[in-house]
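Regression check, magnesium ion case 185:
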Amino acid sequence: MAHFGETMQDDIQEVLFSREQLEAMVRRVGGEIARDYRGKRLLLVSVLKGSVVFMADLMRAIDIPAQIDFMATSSYGAGTQTSGSVKILKDLDIDLSGYDILLVEDILDSGKTLSHLMELLQTRGPASLRICTLFDKPSRRQVPVEPAYVGAEIPDAFIVGYGLDFDERYRNLPYVGVLKPSVYE
Ligand code: IMP
Ligand code: MG
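Current build output:
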């Protein structure tokens, strides 16, 4: 059973990245992408819902032509771990052939979600396919996945805010914080 405080702030143990730090991080990653994808057919694919806030800021930090699309996979539900198989809940609208795809994720944890998505999208014949993740928890990896762009590597803690949720909550926090374990234990 989850125990939520009265305000979102009550449930945050520690602020990991402030608004300003996130902004600088996104600006840096957007600059790297713009430099690397100049002259290419860049398609940013956001994995719903966790990456929407990052995606909205990132696309405006990329100063070259780009298209966007969205897909959704089955989520954690109310837990803090990825379950076994990954289901596609919403597929892409665009035919990927010829596009340079950058999968935009909120956080890379066990790697199960992204390795499955990479395999699936690779079968559709994109010109290239790489990963941009805002956060990476390399110590938690169970399946090998290498992101091309990373906002920041973080230790093994459950974080929320800036799109990231626990039980669909906290996505609207403008900063990223560590959730108090008492909320989900
Ligand atoms: P993976 O398949 O285990 O790599 O899980 C990736 C997904 O798990 C992310 O897209 C998030 O939705 C979720 N996730 C993993 N770690 C966290 C976290 O610390 N906070 C919130 N969501 C997380
Ligand atoms: Mg989630």
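Comparison notes: The pocket of magnesium ion (ligand 2) is lined by residues 50, 75-76, 165 (CB under 6 Å). The first strand starts at residue 12 and ends at 17. No diff flagged against the previous build.
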